[in-house]
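Hi R.,

Here's the chain you asked about this morning:
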Amino acid sequence: MGKIGEGRLAGKVALVTGAAQGIGAAIAQRFWEEGASVVVTDLALNLAAVLLHTREDRVLPVDLDVRSAEGWQRAVAATVQAFGRGPDVLVHNAGVMVPGTVESPDLSAIANAWEVNLLGPVLGTAACVPAMKNAGGGAVVVLSSIAATTGAAGYMPYAVSKAASIRYVNLAAHELGEYGIRVNAILPGGVETAMSSRADFLSRDLDALFGRMAVPRIGRPREIADAALFLTSEESSYVTGTTLVVDGGQTLGPVRSERSTPISTNANG
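And here is the predicted structure, written out as tokens:
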């Protein structure tokens, strides 16, 4: 990394949703390292202590409910006030992993998944497009999931809403390309975050599960952040409407049986 304020996103203004922890926090941190001014948005901004306390310059915390059109307008206005212009880089990371089955659909669960995982990107992109047009272009990244293509047993609302987000990315890329705005999706596999530490996941042997894959460990937030950096930098200037799978080969299936000795998935090793 070069000097502070220099880098692959130098001079850019980036807005990242769900940036208080996990993948969103890693993306915000990575963008800051590469020179961007970063608008850190979430419903729980108090969790973003590390980034906000150590990186006060070029960082703007904004409370945002991605389901609210008015909330998006306020976030863009705050960005303009702080940095003199709206976002030209936008990462839709905020999401909810909502359980539910085909046999017993829960309407409230389905609505929650769709409002956060799909309506959020729809409203947010619309709110940021004017600033991107004025800037002569921009980059939008939607965090989908490999569940969009593989399914996720017991998580029908989540998988279906993430699948819809990919189609939205295709349509947005096609429509906004003439303005120099690129739109792409990242499909992460399992990543070591607070979500993978929930009770319903802790009941499973995650070491044995991920240890069977081509890259025999769970993913790290920084690895997803690096993919987001690529898709928002000039290195991907000819990439739009695509889906980048970042899953260590999980969609390829296991390379060894469950009875094989699992390989350590220590994310620090």
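One quick note: Strands lie at 13-16, 37-42, 59-63, 89-92, 138-143, 181-188, 243-246.

Cheers,
M.
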